[in-house]
Inverse folding.
C-alpha cells in the first residue's frame, strides 16, 4: 500500500477512532486502526473493540492499493505532530510502515492485517433518516442518567423505542436512582419493532461523530446491533442484551406540588450549597414554603450551608432531600431558562423539566437525609 | 494532669465474660474451671474462666484440646440471650459516662471521655467509676485501660487483666509500649510476627526505631500502620454504635466440607441470621463479604457491593453466591461466614430506589412476620423450604446433626479491629 494524504485529513480520521480502540488490552490488534485503500482517491479508516466499530471514509491519493494495521494511539501522536500539510504512507516488507512528511521520516512496526477483527457488515439493514442535531440533543438529555454499575447490566445503556402515537423516537436512561426520558418527533418513522438498549460507550462515540454529521444521517437496527451512517462514517454498536425495567410505572403521572423557578438561580444555589454536602450521599435538603425554597446542606466535618431562593409556589410546605448531583445533572440538560419541579411528598420521586418544554422529563428519587 | 491529654479514651473489656456470667448465675461453678462452648468434637472454646486458663485453655482453642489440657473443666453450653441481656446493661453503664461508646462485641467497648474531667475527675477516677458502675449493675468485673488513643487504651486494659485498671498518660506512652513484644501491635498476627522477627524486630521499640521507609518497603501498608502504632499514634476516633460497620455470622463446621455447593446451605443460614440482626438493629447493608477458612486455617475473604441496600436474607445470599466463583475451592473448609458491611442506620442518609419498591415492601412484611414468630416461638418455628441446594433441610444429603454440633460465633465487631490475618 502506498498513498499521499493531507495531514489534517489523516489526523481527523485517527482522532475519531481514539475513543474506540482499547487502551488496556491484551490483544494489541484491538488497539489498532485499519487503513485500507478504496479505489484511487479514498481510504477507509476503521477501529473496533468488538462491541463498537467505526469506519470513516477519507480523501487520499492512492498510489498502490492495500492496507495497514497499526497502533492507533501511536500513529495519531505522530501524525498530529507532522510538520507539513501533506504526508505519504507506505507499507514495506514485513509489516513495516514508512511515513514521510517534508524532511521527517518514520519507520513504524505494524501488525499483520489478518489479525484485525472482521468488521460487522449488514446487507439487509433497513435505514431510516434522522436529524443529527435532534439525536444529539436526545443523547445529551439521557446519557448522564445511564448506570455505570456493570452489575446492573440492563441499565448500562439508553433504551430506545419508537413512539406509538406519532412518528418519533423515545430514549430512556436510568441508574435506579434517577431516570431521564426524552421524546422527539422524527421526519421518518423509526424502523424499530421493539425497544433496544444502546450501550453507553456506543452512545458516547455516536455523540462525538454527530457533531460532524451533516445531512443524510440515518439509523438502522439489525439483529442485535445499531448502525449509524452519516457523512461517510459508519458506526456499528452491539446492543445491550438485557431487559430494560418497566420505566413507565416509575414516572409520576400526578403531583400535588408544582414549583416554577429560574433554572440558573437554582443551579447556582445548588453549586454553592453542594460545597458543604456530606461526602456520603451528597444530600441537600429542600424546604419548600410559599414562594420560597430553602436549600440546606450539612457536612459533619465541615459545617452547614443554607440558601433561600425565590420561586413561584403556592401550596403546603414540604421538606424533601435529594442527592445534589442528581438534581444538578437533571438541570444541566434543561435548555429553557425557567424550570418546573413537580413533587408529591418526601418519599415520591420529583420531576424536573423546562417550562413549556414537552418531551423531556427528569425523574429523581428523593433521599432520606 | 488530664489537661495534657488530647483525648481521653477508655477501653473496657469484661473479664472472661461468658464464663463469668455462668459463674455468677450458678454458684456451683464459682472457683472451678469453666469452659463455655459446645461439646461437639469440632467446636472451639468461646470463653474459658480464669481457673481454666491456668491449665492453658484459651478462647478459640478446639474443645478437644481444651478437655485434654483440663480434664476436670466443666463445659457449659453458651446462653447467648443471657449474654446479650447482660451486655445491654453493661453498655448502658458505659453510655451513662459518655454518648460516644463504640461496642466492639458484647463485652468490650471504647468510650471517648474527652472533656469529661469536670464531671468525673482525672482519668484514673473515671476508670474507677466505670468499674464500679459495671460491678453495681451486673456484679461482674471489667478491666479498664485509659490512654489518649484507642490502641494504647486497649493494650492497657489487656495488660491489666483481670479486674485491671491501667492508665497510660500521653507522656508515658513510649515507655509503656517499648518493651512489649510485637504481637501487641494490631495487625501483627501469626503470619506477620515471624516475618518481623526474622528481620530482628522483636519489641515495639524495635519497630518504633526502625526506618519508616524501610518498613513500608518491606511490609507495605502493614509497615506504615505498625510504625505509627509503635509511636503510640492512632488517630482513629471512637465511633459510636450509631455508625456500626458490620454484622456477621460464621459457623465452624462439625465436619470439613468441600466445594461451593456444600458451602451454600451455611451461607443461606448465615444470611438469614445476619438479616435478622440487621432488622433488629434497624440497619441496611450495602455490602456483603464471604469468609471461608480452609482445614489448614487459611483464611479467604471476598466481598461485593450491593446495588440496593438491604436487610433481607435473599439479596445478601444472592450476592454471596455471586462471589463464590472468586474463591479457590481446592481445599476442604472448616468455617463458612457471611458479613454484611457498609451499614446504613435508621437515621443515616438513604437514597431512594425507583424500581422494585413493591417487591421490597412485600419482602419487608414477610420478614417482619417471621421475626415476630421467631421472637415468640424460637428460631426453629420457621425454616426455609430449601437449604440452598434444592434439598430439604433434613434430606439425605446432609446430616441434620451437623448443625447442632457446630459451633457458632456471632461477630459484630468493627472489621477494622480484626487484624488477625496478615493484611499483606
Amino acid at each position: 500500500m502506498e498513498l499521499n494524504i493531507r495531514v489534517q485529513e489523516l489526523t481527523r480520521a485517527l482522532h475519531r477512532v481514539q475513543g474506540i480502540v482499547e487502551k488496556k488490552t491484551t490483544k494489541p490488534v484491538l488497539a489498532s486502526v485499519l487503513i485500507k485503500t478504496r479505489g484511487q482517491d479514498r481510504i477507509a479508516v476503521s477501529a473496533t473493540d468488538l462491541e463498537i466499530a467505526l469506519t470513516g471514509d477519507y480523501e487520499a491519493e492512492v498510489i498502490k492499493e492495500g492496507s495497514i494495521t497499526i497502533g492507533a494511539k501511536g500513529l495519531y501522536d505522530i501524525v498530529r505532530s507532522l510538520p507539513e500539510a501533506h504526508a505519504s504512507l507506505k507499507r514495506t516488507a514485513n509489516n513495516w510502515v514508512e511515513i514521510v512528511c517534508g524532511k521527517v521520516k518514520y519507520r513504524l512496526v505494524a501488525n499483520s492485517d489478518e489479525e484485525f477483527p472482521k468488521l460487522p457488515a449488514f446487507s439487509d439493514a433497513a435505514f431510516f433518516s434522522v436529524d443529527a442535531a435532534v439525536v444529539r440533543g436526545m443523547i445529551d438529555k439521557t446519557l448522564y442518567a445511564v448506570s455505570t454499575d456493570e452489575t446492573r447490566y440492563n441499565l448500562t445503556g439508553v433504551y430506545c423505542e419508537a413512539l406509538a402515537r406519532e412518528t418519533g423516537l423515545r430514549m430512556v436512561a436510568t441508574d435506579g436512582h434517577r431516570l431521564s426520558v426524552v421524546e422527539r418527533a422524527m421526519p421518518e418513522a423509526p424502523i424499530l419493532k421493539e425497544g433496544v438498549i444502546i450501550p453507553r460507550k456506543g452512545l458516547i462515540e455516536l455523540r462525538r461523530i454527530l457533531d460532524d454529521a451533516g445531512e443524510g444521517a440515518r439509523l438502522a437496527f439489525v439483529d442485535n446491533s445499531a448502525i449509524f451512517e452519516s457523512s461517510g462514517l459508519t458506526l456499528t454498536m452491539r446492543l445491550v442484551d438485557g431487559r430494560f425495567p418497566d420505566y413507565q410505572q416509575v414516572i409520576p403521572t400526578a403531583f400535588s406540588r408544582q414549583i416554577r423557578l429560574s433554572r440558573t438561580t437554582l443551579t447556582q444555589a445548588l453549586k454553592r450549597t453542594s460545597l458543604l454536602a456530606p461526602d456520603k450521599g451528597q444530600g441537600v435538603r429542600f424546604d419548600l414554603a410559599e414562594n420560597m425554597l430553602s436549600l440546606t446542606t450539612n457536612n459533619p466535618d465541615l459545617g452547614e450551608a443554607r440558601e433561600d431562593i425565590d420561586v413561584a409556589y403556592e401550596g403546603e410546605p414540604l421538606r424533601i432531600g435529594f442527592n445534589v448531583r442528581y438534581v444538578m445533572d437533571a438541570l444541566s440538560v434543561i435548555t429553557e431558562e425557567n424550570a418546573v419541579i413537580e413533587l408529591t411528598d418526601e418519599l415520591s420521586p420529583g420531576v424536573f423539566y423546562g417550562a413549556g418544554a414537552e418531551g423531556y422529563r427528569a425523574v429523581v428519587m428523593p433521599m432520606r437525609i | 494532669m488530664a489537661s495534657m491529654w488530647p483525648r481521653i479514651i477508655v477501653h473496657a473489656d469484661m473479664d472472661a465474660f461468658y464464663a463469668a456470667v455462668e459463674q455468677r448465675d450458678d454458684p456451683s461453678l464459682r472457683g472451678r474451671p469453666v469452659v463455655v462452648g459446645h461439646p461437639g468434637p469440632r467446636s472451639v472454646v468461646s470463653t474459658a474462666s480464669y481457673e481454666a486458663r491456668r491449665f492453658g485453655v484459651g478462647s478459640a482453642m478446639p474443645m478437644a484440646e481444651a478437655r485434654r489440657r483440663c480434664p476436670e473443666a466443666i463445659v457449659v453450653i453458651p446462653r447467648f440471650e443471657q449474654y446479650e441481656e447482660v451486655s445491654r446493661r453493661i453498655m448502658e453503664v458505659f453510655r451513662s459516662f459518655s454518648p460516644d461508646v463504640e461496642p466492639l462485641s458484647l463485652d468490650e467497648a471504647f468510650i471517648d471521655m474527652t472533656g469529661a474531667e469536670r464531671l468525673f475527675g482525672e482519668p484514673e477516677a473515671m476508670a474507677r467509676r466505670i468499674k464500679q458502675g459495671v460491678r453495681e449493675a451486673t456484679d461482674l468485673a471489667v478491666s479498664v485501660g485509659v490512654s489518649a488513643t484507642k490502641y494504647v487504651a486497649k493494650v492497657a486494659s489487656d495488660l491489666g487483666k483481670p479486674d485491671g485498671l491501667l492508665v497510660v498518660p500521653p507522656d508515658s506512652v513510649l515507655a509503656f509500649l517499648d518493651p512489649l513484644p510485637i504481637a501487641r501491635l494490631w495487625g501483627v498476627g501469626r503470619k506477620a510476627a515471624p516475618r518481623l522477627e526474622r528481620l530482628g524486630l522483636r519489641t515495639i521499640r524495635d519497630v518504633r526505631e526502625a526506618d519508616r521507609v524501610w518498613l513500608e518497603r518491606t511490609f507495605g501498608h502493614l509497615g506504615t500502620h505498625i510504625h505509627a502504632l509503635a509511636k503510640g499514634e492512632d488517630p482513629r476516633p471512637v465511633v459510636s454504635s450509631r455508625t456500626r460497620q458490620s454484622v456477621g455470622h460464621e459457623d465452624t463446621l462439625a465436619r470439613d466440607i468441600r466445594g461451593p455447593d456444600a458451602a451454600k446451605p451455611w451461607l443461606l443460614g448465615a444470611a438469614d441470621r445476619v438479616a435478622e440482626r440487621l432488622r433488629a438493629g434497624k440497619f441496611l447493608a450495602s455490602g456483603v463479604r464471604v469468609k471461608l477458612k480452609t482445614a489448614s486455617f487459611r483464611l479467604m475473604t471476598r466481598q461485593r457491593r450491593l446495588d440496593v441496600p438491604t436487610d433481607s436474607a435473599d439479596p445478601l445470599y444472592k450476592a454471596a453466591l455471586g462471589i463464590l466463583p472468586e474463591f479457590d475451592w481446592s481445599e476442604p473448609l472448616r468455617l463458612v461466614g457471611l458479613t454484611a458491611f457498609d451499614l446504613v442506620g435508621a437515621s443515616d442518609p438513604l437514597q431512594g430506589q425507583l424500581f422494585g419498591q413493591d417487591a421490597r415492601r412485600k419482602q419487608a412484611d414477610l420478614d417482619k412476620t417471621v421475626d415476630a414468630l421467631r421472637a415468640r416461638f424460637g428460631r426453629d418455628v420457621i425454616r426455609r423450604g430449601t437449604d440452598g441446594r434444592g434439598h430439604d433441610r433434613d434430606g439425605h444429603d446432609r446430616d441434620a446433626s451437623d448443625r447442632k454440633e457446630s459451633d457458632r460465633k456471632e461477630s459484630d465487631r468493627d472489621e477494622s479491629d480484626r487484624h488477625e490475618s496478615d493484611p499483606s
Q: What stands out?
A: The mean pLDDT of chain A is 93. Chain A has three domains: 2-115, 128-247, 251-364. The helical segments of chain A are 7-17, 72-79, 132-142, 200-210, 263-274, 324-332.
